[in-house]
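Illustration: Molecular chaperone.
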Amino acid sequence: MTALAAVAGLAPITLEELVEQAALQTRVDRKYVVPVTVAEQLVAGLAGCARVLDVGGRRDLGYASLYFDTPELTSYLLAARGRRRRFKVRRRTYADTGQSFLEVKTRGGRGCTVKERTPDDDGHALALDAAGRRFVDEVLGRAGIDPVAAELVPVLTTRYERTTLLLPAPASRVTVDTGLRWAVPGGPDLGLPGLAIVETKSSSTPSVADRRLWRAGHRPSRVSKYGTGLAALHEHLPANRWHPVLRRHFDPDPTPTPQERTAS
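Result:
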């Protein structure tokens, strides 16, 4: 049973076809935090043009990501302060296949996200092995970032169900993540069952999914599963970059600020 009923009416696409037509390892990402009902409406409206990733008859695939950072949270702080040269390191595991990859994200020209990854045979380890540390530092070096792999420790786990769509002309991808959960190793956790994170991934031009969301009044949000999730679970961390999303979606009973009360 899929998390989004609307995908039942979409034509399927295999993982091999998806990668061939729209790998998009270097891309422009736009993220939207919306109710699951809005995500359903978006997918239903794309039925005439979108294809959905189908793996063994499943169209909602379980993802788990373990994020690594330094004890000082260098990766988090670079993102929170909007630094151009920032990075993210995670081990992503696909629950349905058991495959794991070590992934490093950096920023390319014009704000593009650049993702590089390598297979990770030990998806359950809480530390990077020597090969993993070399891979991380090589990727960071190419991006002009000082090596930090020797310092990395696990700091956050995320879990969710993902539905992936392919949109043609020009080829772009849309992912819809539901069942969102965050947890600090050995610490608190957080779930947002009524929300979805929709992410569009394109070479440059906004996709038909972006335009549909804009017409419905939804604009891209500054949201990061790592940054926003860690900030929600550690209230002492600087989080101005994600404050609007945190207040609107992560605070169960937000108290309006004087400016918000005046605006209403």
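Reading the tokens back as a structure: Residues 10-250 form a domain with the Hypothetical Protein Pfu-838710-001 fold (CATH 2.40.320.10).
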